[in-house]
Amino acid sequence: MKIASENQRLAFRLVSDVSKIGMSKKEAKAQNLKVVRSIGTQRNYVDWVKAFLDWCDQINRPFREHFSILHTQEYLYELAEEPRTKKEINDIKVALETTFKIKLEPVESEHFAILKSRAYQDDQIGKIINMLTDKFSLSARICAAANLRVHELLTLRRTSELERSTHREWSKDLYIHVSDFVLYTVTGKGGLRRYVAIPTALSKELESHRVASCEEITIKDRKIYYTLLYDIAGGQRLSQAFSAASMKALGFSFGAHGLRHRWAQKRFQTLKDNGMDTDTALSIVSQEMGHFRPDIVLAYFR
Question: What confidence score (pLDDT) does residue 164 get?
Answer without folding.
Answer: 97
